[in-house]
Recover the amino acids of this structure.
C-alpha cells in the first residue's frame, strides 16, 4: 500500500487494507484504477487490481454529483423582529425551510433552541446539487454568493423579500462555503448512477467477496445508497468481515451469508455483452 509522507510515496507493507475513501479519491490520489504502477516505483509494488478490468472501470466511471453549501449565522431569529411579516405554514407555524426553483434552491433555518427567543441560529443559506453547484463555484467570494442568493430569494415569491432581508443581515465574516468537489480526498458530492451504471456499482459493492483479496473498498460510493451513511456503514462492515474471513476467523452464520454469490452478476453479464458489441 502507498501512503503520502512529505509529498513522497514510500512503499509500506500491510497484510490487509481497507480503503475508506471516495471513488474519485481512489482514482485521483491512489491510482487504484491503474493497470500498472507509476513509473519509478519499486519492482515489488504491484497495482492491487491489475487483473480486474471491471473493477478498475467501476472505480473511474460512476457519475458523482457536484454539491455545494453556503452556511451563515444569525445572532437573532428573523421571525421575532418587530413588524416582520415572516412566512408561516398553513398551520400557523414559523416557516424554517424555504424551497425555490431559483439558484437559492433549499434554505434551512437550523433552530436548536426554539424556546429561547434570545438564541441565534445557523442558516444553511443554500444547498445546491449538480449544475447549480457548478454555478455556485463560479462566484468567487462568500459575500458575492450571499448577495446572489438574496436576489434569487427576492424574486422567487411575494414573501421572498422578507427572507432575503434575513440573509442580508448575516455578517460576511460568519459565512462558510463548502464545495464538495473541491474538498481534498473527496472531489465530489455523492454517487448518482446514470441508467445501467449499476453494472459498475455492483462491482464495487461485491468486491469484498473475492477470494484471496488483500485490499477492500469501503465508502458510500461503494454501495447502492450513494450519499447516505447507511451505504458507507454497510460497505465498511462488509470489508471488515472480509478481513476477518481472510485471517481465518470463524464468522457467525448470518455474517457468513454476506459471502453468498452476487445475485446481480447474471444481469451484469448480460448488460456487459450489450456494451461490448
Amino acid at each position: 500500500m502507498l501512503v503520502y509522507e512529505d509529498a513522497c510515496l514510500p512503499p509500506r507493507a500491510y497484510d490487509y487494507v481497507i480503503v475508506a475513501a471516495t471513488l474519485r479519491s481512489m482514482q485521483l490520489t491512489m491510482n487504484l484504477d491503474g493497470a500498472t504502477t507509476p513509473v519509478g516505483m519499486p519492482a515489488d509494488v504491484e497495482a492491487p487490481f491489475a487483473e480486474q478490468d471491471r473493477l478498475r472501470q467501476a472505480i473511474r466511471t460512476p457519475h458523482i454529483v457536484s454539491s455545494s453549501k453556503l452556511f451563515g449565522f444569525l445572532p437573532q431569529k428573523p421571525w421575532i423582529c418587530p413588524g416582520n411579516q415572516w412566512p408561516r405554514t398553513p398551520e400557523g407555524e414559523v416557516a424554517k425551510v424555504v424551497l425555490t426553483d431559483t439558484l437559492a434552491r433549499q434554505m434551512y433555518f437550523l433552530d436548536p433552541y426554539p424556546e429561547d427567543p434570545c438564541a441565534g441560529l445557523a442558516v444553511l443559506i443554500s444547498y445546491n446539487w449538480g449544475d447549480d453547484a457548478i454555478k455556485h463555484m463560479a462566484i468567487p467570494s462568500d459575500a458575492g454568493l450571499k448577495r446572489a442568493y438574496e436576489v434569487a430569494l427576492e424574486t422567487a415569491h411575494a414573501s421572498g423579500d422578507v427572507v432575503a432581508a434575513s440573509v442580508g443581515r448575516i455578517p460576511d465574516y460568519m459565512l462558510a462555503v463548502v464545495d464538495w468537489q473541491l474538498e481534498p480526498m473527496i472531489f465530489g458530492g455523492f454517487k448518482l448512477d446514470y441508467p445501467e451504471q449499476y453494472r459498475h456499482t455492483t462491482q464495487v459493492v461485491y468486491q469484498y467477496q473475492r477470494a484471496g483479496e488483500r485490499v477492500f473498498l469501503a465508502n458510500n460510493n461503494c454501495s447502492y445508497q450513494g450519499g447516505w451513511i447507511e451505504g458507507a456503514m454497510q460497505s465498511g462492515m462488509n470489508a471488515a468481515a472480509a478481513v476477518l474471513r481472510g485471517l481465518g476467523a470463524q464468522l457467525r452464520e448470518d455474517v457468513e451469508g454476506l459471502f453468498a454469490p452476487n445475485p446481480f452478476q447474471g444481469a451484469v453479464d448480460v448488460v456487459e455483452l450489450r456494451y461490448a458489441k
